[in-house]
Records
---
Amino acid sequence: MDFYAVIAYPAVLIVSGALVVVGLAVLISGRGHRLLKAVVTAAWIATAVHLITVVVALLSGNDAGVVLTLGYLLASVALLPLLGIGRLGEPPAPGETVDPDRPVLRPDQIMRLDAIAAIIIGIAIAVVAWRVAVIMGAA
Amino acid sequence: MSDERRVVNPVARISLIAVYAVLCLAATGRSVYQISTKFSEAPLPYAISAVSAVLYGVIALALWRGWRRTAVIGSAVELAGVLLVGTLGYVESSWWPDETVWTGFGSAYGWVPLVLPILALVALLRARRVEADAR
């Protein structure tokens, strides 16, 4: 529980903040896509650590509502694939079957899309982590 | 790719899909929990949360598949729902023993449920106007 309260929960909040800040910076400046991808990787890691830590805390006797907590944890995992959603707009590889519903975007459009997704998901992950912390009695 | 799909700005379209997917997830989680644990306490608010979850999912799918008419109707219904539920929450507060996704015009969700259908309608109707001008 200490590791959750001192490390895992703050780490998710910090990474969420970084997603929002870097996403805004990329959106405004049109640069820094590689940095944004690094922050997205950090978000996956922080969310995984958060999930494992909360599950361990629940198994070790925390009296938080299990259904609600697991629901929020599942939500945080379900949000992650939306990070880097710009990849949906990448041109199809040679020989790949083309989906007519999939738009093909320019690199700058993909970068803007990733930035917008990072801002949205950063806020959503922070809210979910905060809700879990409230349920766990750590916030 | 059809003209209908091409005239909607792709960045706006995928951004809207992402936000609708997040809202669908949030509303689904909320309504499943409320309906499965305490539906009898506030059937109307919890049913409305479930309806909003379905609506968000349908709009996200419609935007992705290029079903513009469905997306326009869904967004209009969503906007009407937010305005109606938000207003009734203040006018007839006794009808609402608990909150819905649309209570307080979506204030618990940062008013995203109010702003989002407006943005979606602007993007979709602008695309239709561009298409009409091109003919």
---
Amino acid sequence: MLPRKLKIDSTELAEITNELVQFLNCLVLRSGGLKKEHIWVRNGRILDERTVFFEEKTMADVQIDCEGLILSPGFIDLQLNGGFGIDFSTYNSDDKEYQEGLALVAKQLLAHGVTSFSPTVITSSPETYHKILPLLKPSNASSEGAGNLGAHLEGPFISADKRGCHPEQLVITSLSPNPVEIIEHVYGSTENIAIVTMAPELEGAQEAIEYFVSTGTTVSVGHSSAKLGPGEMAVLSGAKMITHLFNAMQSYHHRDPGLIGLLTSSKLTPDHPLYYGIISDGIHTHDSALRIAYHTNSAGLVLVTDAIAALGMSDGVHKLGTQTIHVKGLEAKLDGTNTTAGSVASMPYCIRHLMKATGCPIEFALQSATHKPATLLGVSDEKGTLDVGRLADFVLIDKNVTVKATFCSGKRVFLAQD
Amino acid sequence: MKLIIEENADKVAEFAARYVVTKINEATENGKYLVLGLPTGSTPLGMYKKLIEFYNAGVISFEKVKTFNMDEYVDLPRDHTESYHSFMFDNFFRHIDINPANIHILDGNTSDHEKECEEYERKIKESGGIDLFVGGIGPDGHIAFNEPGSSLASRTRIKTLNEDTIQANARFFGGDITKVPTQALTVGVQTVMDAREVMILITGSHKALALHQAIECGISHMCTVSAMQMHRCATFIADEDATLELKVKTVKYFKGLMNHHRSLVMF
């Protein structure tokens, strides 16, 4: 039986189940770069094409002509505060409303090629954490929306001076005398937490980091007044990431570089690698700073949007937790101040801007939004790459990183209208 | 036999590919499969590229083509970059519409080599025999892995490679001779002789002596490709460099037939 030949806009692609599907005529992003290759998918997983050819000795049921587009793993956003009018830090009155908001964002993210994200919650009260966290159970991507990797809790264990838009009255600046007890009191269960951003200079911070790491949580240092020393101790205790590099931290100084100095720290080793989130929206990080980061430690560069509820919305007034944010174009400011809130840039925009600002190849920019964040969270055996056996979550884009179609587990879940 | 002399390796590849296309289209018109014997190596690479171009241009389909490769290393993993499974997959099969159920490559990782070889001969027979066996030759005149001294009546079997071949192959295995396979499964000389047509591609001056021995000297098991002198329908396609050891009169004779030979692949 000969394969059915389809184009990416065929309605069949939204309903494919257990058929053997071959995506051809595409530039596939793999560790060796962008190459003209095919991707084979069945039951939502990527197959080894030689095994299909030489062992199964079968032809594809369906062949999909990708018309020369780039086929990249789906984008992963480790820092997303909300979007499309929904704020993850806002819990109004009931679980259902919150869950519907989360689902709406997840669904809309597919149009941005994002197939996995960490719903990000800024500093909140223990009551809010206890209500929200049980609702953020991790999930895989599907036609229902992008997959939830688990919550990214930004705060409340942060520096009061570097809290940014976080509500001052809820910031907790010490984890003494009993860090574990305090964490459990504030957060409740750590089960649905993927990432915690905290300030490493706080009392009890090192013990807290070790505790989080022992629960499988990724620790990121940020919203911090720390000098380099506490930052290095944090890395040695198991912290693996810096939150939105350059933002909400001490500026670089040649006699004490602060957390920025971690990029070239002698404490970094294969056992203690370091990644850093960076917002390449053209607002949070000056292009020159982007270039400094890229040229200093390109291996650790991970793109995050840090997008807020206004993502995908028009200019106006929006909420971020208990805070009020004013949005104009790509700028979002805390009401009554000149403090920058999260961004309103999409991940494709951040990828494009990184390329434009640094001159990096598209392969690097895409890897910074796919394989690297997956590796950081320890989920690269499922997501963030197109290696054999992985979930077939991918995105078809052109050379300008315009999303043409998004696929989850091999099914088309978004198609751009031309 | 025919000796077709083209200017360079690219022209050799073009002629060979056109010949294969012609044969496929003939078979298709007659409602039959075309059964091809296929080689690996740098010489046939150009032919495979041309065939892929013809496929992409819509000139040809491999839907009604069956293939049997000549040989494969023993105990080299299928997915190793130097295995012939890898060569054929990367350079040809994955780029065309051939049904994988119709391709055959000896399994060098089997525990029973004798049985694998007997099965291979049986499958060739069941397919109705090979219509066109495409081959290359070694500098010593070997065809497939039928190295000097191989019986001209040989069938598909396991073969121990000689020292020269192993040393020559080391460059494909990181220069480490201990990593080079020492044995291979190969179709025999008689297996190739049984094909209805044989097309041998020869390029480069390092093959010139072999071509001379193949067509101007006597038939000998020390130059197994010389067996093609007895084949009822053998074609050699060579570039100018490969003819450097031939007598001038031999070259002139076959060049005089080029207009006729050219007409075989006009489309």
---
Amino acid sequence: MRKISVRSIEDALFDCIRQSSFDLGPRELDALRRARDSETSDTGKNILDQLLRNADIARTERRPLCQDTGLAVVFLDLGQEVALVDGDLTAAVNSAVARAYTELHLRLSVVAHPLDRRNTGDNTPAILHVRIVPGDRVRLRFAAKGGGAENMSRLAMLTPSAGRAGVVDFVVRTVRESLANPCPPLVVGVGLGGNFETVALAAKEALLRPLGEPALDERDAALERELLAALNSTGVGPMGLGGRTTALAVHVASRPCHIAALPVAVNLDCHSHRHGEVLI
Amino acid sequence: MPTQLLQPPLKADVVRSLAAGTEVRITGVIYAARDAAHARMVKALEAGEALPFDLRGAIIYYVGPTPGGPGQVVGAAGPTTSGRMDAYAPALIERGLAGMIGKGDRDAAVVEAMKKYGAVYFAATGGAGALLGKCITSQRILAYEDLGTEALRELTVEDFPAVVAIDAGGGSLYRR
């Protein structure tokens, strides 16, 4: 067994939160620049210019990219030959979130109960997904999910006769009806198949792929291309004010499913697309 | 179309002259309020109480900023989704609120109130938190401090960029 301290997971997560909150990734910057060059709407161009300047100010002045610094979502793939030492894994993850959100002056956006809505005061608890995998390493992936994009995300239990057209229609409708709320241009995670709970997880996990990297399954990659073209011809545009840049990328992740079912989940992410990955 | 410079409080003729699609830069005092602060303001008005600021000609910005780092007034301060304030906005517009800044479309009742009493809705760029936060040169909490990031604040802004998304005639940049 390889021993890994939960402290090293805590430190890696802290660094992920710091980097993703202030530094827009190179792929995201590149996608925004390309979008600005191909955008035909004046308002849209102006917004894309503001987003590029925003990334510059965030990086140089250490201001968060967005005031909604999000709910911390953590995926841990834990090698089965790893023994975690030095304490409680969940506590270490929450400690990284609490330290990062308070020390880095990020916004505390978590309430303890959905109805009485008292703020927890340190942005915990994180949403933590742990999976046991072969090997002796730990793969940590992080996403900061803002409220606007998460609120407009949708799940549908379609049936097989809906087919590919039904899937495309559901994804396009979700984006078109959400207009400005999720802060387009978007990154769109699509889960396809699995069941009620795993399709949503697949959509979220799809968002964590490097921006614009196609799915390994060619059928999923073809669907990504079709969806991206369809979304960018809706006219929603940057911030829903019209234009051709509605999505920067679509990531599809498919799973086997029941003979009676065609589950689809659409998890939207804004243009800040804050995520990180570390291998320990 | 040239960029129009605005200084609140906004006069009625200025509000009526702004057409959807006009880019603006706002300099002066505006007020920050989100869901919880709106709920309290409207409750106060219904109880016949005065608000902590003069609504006449005022602009409310739908924002919950991050705290500022060392040497910063606030950190990031981009707009939140305006639709969540639709239930409260008509009561404020009726009493003189002249401008709102946020992101996303408004409902029919808000647009009707804007037309009837003369108010304008500006869209700021969602997610441009650092850029917009930098335009805030001072801030103080006016009321509801217990709400934390949702407290009612007075902000002084300089050259704050926005676009007229819905004008006082009901003209709109949003496709419905």
